[in-house]
Structures are given as C-alpha cells and as structure tokens.
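Components:
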Amino acid sequence: MACEAYREIIDRFVGNLATAEEKKDLEEHMKTCGECRSEVEDISRMLKAFNSFESVDLPDDLMPLLHERLLKICAESAEKEKNISVCNLMKRLTAILYNFYRINSKVLTAGICAALISFFLGRFSVMPASFKYGINTAVEYDKIQPDDGPGSAKRLMMAKSASQDEKDIKQDAPQEIQKGKQENIQNDTAAGASGDTAGRSAELTRSSRNGMMKEYASAKNATQYKVQQASGPKAAAATSITGQDGDACSVVVRVYDFDKKVVFTISLAHQLSGDIQKAEITADSEDNSRTAYIVMKIPVEREASALEQIKALGEVEKSYKASQAESAAQKNGTVIMHINIIEKNTAQAQSN
Amino acid sequence: MQKSNNNEVSPIWKGGEEALSEEKELIRLARMGDVRAFEKLIAGYEKKVYNTVYRFFGNTEDAKDITQEIFIKLFTSLKLFREGSSFSTWLYRIAVNTCIDFSRRKKEDLLPLQEELDDCGMRIGEYENPPEACAEHKELKKAIEGAIQTLPEDQRICLILRDIQGFSYMEISSILNCSQGTIKSRISRGRRALRELLRKKGTFY
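Structure:
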C-alpha cells in the first residue's frame, strides 16, 4: 500500500481513533517506511504540544469594556427607535387597515358593489316602483301634516286615504283600490259640498307632484266616468274598462260599421305581432247596439301605431294610457290594450 | 491545563431542561435590550471564545478587540437567532466567522508585512540551537503558536477547534456548517501543512 493510503489511518491513529487492525497494519508499515514513521512522530508531538497549551485568562478590562459598549448600543438603538416611532405608528396603522380589509374583504366588496348598484339604479330610474312610492308617500305626508288651519282635519284625512290608496296599489289589490277611490271621491264631493276649496287645491298640488298621483287622478277620472255611465245603457262596457288589473291602455270608440271594425281590430293585433287575449261581443237589447270588448297584448314599440289606428276607426269616446314607468307589462316588453268598440246605432245617428 | 478546559461542558448540557428554559428566558430578555441578561447568557462561553480567538490570531490585542466584536455582533443579531436551534453552536459560528473575516481583511491590509514576518520566523528557526527535552517542548510550542497563524483560515480554525479546543468532529461540522468529511480533510491537511512549516523552520528534522 502506498503511503498516501495510510494518511487517513495516521490521522485516526494519532487521535487514538484507529481500530486495532488499523493500528497493527500501520505499525507494520512504519517498520519499513521512514517517512510515515516520522510523520506519525511529528504529528503526535504536535498534538502533545497543542494539549499543553495553557488556557489564556481573559484580560481584566475585557468584560467591563464590553459592558459599556453594549450599553451604548442599547442607548443608540433606543434613540433610533424613538425617531422611527412615528414611522412605525403609520406602518402599524396601515397594517391594521390592511388586515381589516383582508379579513372583511368580501363584506366590504359586497357593500361597495351594493352602493354602486343602487347608485346606478337611481341614475337610470329603474328602481322598484314600491320603493319609489314609499319615499313619495312619506314626503307627501310630511308636507301636508303641518298645514294647520280650517278644514285641516279633513285634509289630513284625505292625505291618509291617499296614502292608503297608494299602499293598495302597491299590494296589487285592484278591488281595494277601487273601494279607496270611491271613498276618495265621496270625500272629494263632501269637501266640495262644504266649500273647502283649500282642500281641493291641496289635492291638486299633491296630484301634480308625482307621476303616481297623476295616475291616481286619471284613475279617479275613469271611476268618475264609470259613475256617470253607471246609470246609462253602456254600463256593462264601462265596467270592463276599469275593472282590469294592470290597465295599460284602454280605448273606447264608437263606430258605425261595427262588424267590419271589429274584424279589423282583431286582425290588427296579428299585424302588429301581438295576440288577442279576450274578445267578446255583448248586445244591448234596449237600443239595439252591440259592444265588443277586446283585450290584446302587443309589443311596446307597436303600441303607438295600434292606438292611432284604433282611434281612426271612429269617434273616440275615451282614451286612457297608464304611465309607462309603472306599467308592469312593460317589463316584459309588451303592453295590454283594452279596446271597447261600441256600435253607433243608425237610428240614433239619424235622430242626432 | 488546557485539556481540563476542553472537557468543560457548556452551560446548556449542565442542567438539562431547566437550563434550557432559563437560556430561553435570557435570550428573550436580551433581545429586548437587557444587557445584564445578555451577560448572564454568555457567561461560561467568553473564556473559550477568547482562547479560540487568541489561538487564531496569536496576540492578545487582536484577541481582545475581536472577542468584543464577536459579543457585540451576537447581541445585535440576537433577533436573528432561530429558537429551537443550539445557542452555543450559533455563538461559535458567529465567533468563527468573525475571526475568518478579520483575518482575511488583515491579510489584505498587511500583505507585505506578513511576508517579512514569515522570513524572519524562518531565520530564527534556522539559527536556534538544538534544545534539550523540556526546552525542546517549550520551543515546539512557541514554534507551533507562530506557525499556526500562517495556515489558511479554514484549516487553521478546524485545527484550533479540534486539536486545541477539543470540539468533536460533529460539533465542528455544525459550527462551520459543512460535512464531517470536509472537516476531517481540512484537519488532515492542516496538520501536514503545519508539519511542513515546522520542518522548514528546523523544529522538525
């Protein structure tokens, strides 16, 4: 074996870490190899010298010096900390805010989204009708209430009944509405009879304030019309005008050529890509005239042209159109038209 | 004697769990800037550190300065100490790295001077008379003390930690963060290089 190979064994041998076999092997080798023998001797002497190195004592001033330096470092770092404490405060605040956002990010995002959506909805006035009504009613009520004077109690009552009316519309209870309206009319007449003009003017301003009130007024007119007609021979026809839910549009026309006009109206619905929902003809035995009640559903954009053509049929007795924003049918892109075609009696016409 | 000093166990191994929890508490306090706690923490290490540094540089002046540097570094970087790892290993690692850094910087600054010193040392060795047994041992010690400084840093520190300070191969490998094989080969090369140096000086024939 070459001397190079004995190096590791020598290292272990001098450190007393060699196995008995290694020891024996090396001793055999050293008998013949002077170089390795002297290496072992030298290193052993070296290690012996190392072991005899005395431990040096610490210089007396070392630890006190160190202590002073450490204190100085502490003082410096404290100073530094004071300087950056404001900075740290800001950092901490930012961290707190960030953490708050991170923890509640979903809620915050949802909140911001909701705020944005409500903002844009408000902008483009596609707010739910009930929401709008609620606000208007409150405002209306506030405005009327503090008005003290003669007949204020009556006005208050009227306002209350009006708000009751509005609530009823909101709840889509047409019969209730009618009742309310009739009550209101009675109130109105009562107010008129007692000469309470102030009450009337209040009513008028209130009506002009918002669209809903306009509709209310129109609806009242229709009812008044009904009341007028109730005693007349066209009672049946008139009832059907106002009795329908979601009165989008209703027309009453008096015509001479009854059959032709009815057929034309029905075909009109198909022309305007709408459909007929109801069609009935009633005959009045008294004055020998017939009334056709047609309900058709047509697309919103065709409404105007349909109305025009129907009006052209004959003498328009009544044409009523609901406010667009409040029409439920409009949401679907369609409009419901109630058409009453009343036959003009030839004999009547002749007598006229 | 040095040997007895070598066998001295670090405070960590003295009291087991209790000492460990006490050490933990002292580290916590020292981190917050408690100098007294820090001094208590390093008590028992300072002598060994100082001796290692002294053997590495071979003079008390450097040993004093660098030992202070080591402990200051230890104090300021205590927040970087990872809990769960051995404090003594971490302490010696900082000590060794500081020594090596200083030695390299010093070498760069004093390169021509160092060569001069080497020449001088060799001449002294040459002209020394062959000493007697006891005197020879003293002479050898002196020669080794001088020669060890001329070894490359990595071999020098391994030799000091193993042969003078008596650390185990495993301890040295964790202090220097390298394999035991590397440590063994460094020690082997260091011993032979030292022998060569002493032969050149005439201490070994």
